[in-house]
Design a protein that fits this description.
The chain contains 18 helices and no strands. By secondary structure, it is mostly helical. The protein has one domain: Growth Hormone, Chain: A (Up-down Bundle), CATH 1.20.1250.
Amino acid sequence: MTKREWAWASYDWANSAFPTVITTFVIAAYFTKGIAPDPVTGQAQWGWMQAFVGLSIGLLSPVLGAIADAGGRRRAMLATCVGLCALATASIWFARPDAAYTFLALACVALASIAFEVGTVFYNAMLPGVTTRERLPRLSGIGFAMGYAGGLACLAACLVLLVQPNPSLFGLDRGQAEHVRAAALLVAAWVVVFALPVLLLVPDPPPPHGYARPGWGVAAQRGLAEILGILRGLPKRPDMARFLVARLFYTDGLNTTFAFGAIYAAGVFGMGFEELLLFGIALNVTAGIGAFLGGWVDERFGAKRTVMGSLLLLMVVLVAILLAESKAAFWTLGLVIGMTFGPAQAASRTLMARMAPPAEAAAHFGLFALSGRVTGFLGPLLLAVATDATQSQRAGMAVVLGLLILGTALLATVRAPR
């Protein structure tokens, strides 16, 4: 791999610490068990917050992606998102284990999540410019594999340095959950440090010969015109339109499964923070293996087949998890689910990179983010409503299956480029 390829892929290592530690395994579980009145109320409140985040990302991503295309400043906009994400994440430290801190915790996680997701638009748009068209599947898979490895490393650091030692290192007060809240400080530093390679070594594409980069005002005008043009042209590109709609549903299912996995494990199977961290570490190992192997499967069988195979396996195993009664069964099935996430995500990114015109990469990846987030509120919303109505976490998680089935059925109608 070239220096730029490594620098690009290293950002997956940097940013994956955020969803792994903050919105999945540590802070999400801390919120439901330490701040919220009870796990069921906590899952519902977390669901409403994630619904707001999804809607915000869906509205912002295409517009900001088009502005990045027009202004040629993907790197600067990525750096801004990294800074905002780190600042909001570090602020979670101030959310003490008391219901009075509910709004602070949810607001910090929401702002950090929006910055994290919007930054991914600019990062993904850099992919076609750092490698050859033939190496896109492999590099995308390596990036996701490095992401899962980064999440694993950060989780392990949280376990060894913060959660497990008793008495706690660094004078942390376990009674005030400082050993858990400190995970947010670690993630904030992790994101900033490991994002430096892509920010320093992957430059923006040069402007056309003889032209200077436009100012922000001009870039905004051109960006809005570009995204409107792309949207008006979608009816003439039915495969792109169907792919975006399909991803809209199956990514919502994937994200909801991943975001609420730790909350489900804590509430249904009584997992504590240490066991959740161990489960998260094991899950990241299988997910990283799946992402790495998925790149080779993508090269051999194509991105569409890779995504569909992963989704079908995920649905089968998710049904088994909802029926599982023992913690051992949940552990085993959860690790199998981990094998499906990486290939589905990496191959989806490859498929978009192949279908999008290079000059409009950020705008198309903005639509890519839009398709993954414009209904990002739907999964958490349906989960929150079902959980509230039935007072059952199992019934809440069951709604994910419908989203996965619908997305897979639509994807089957897409003609993928060779």
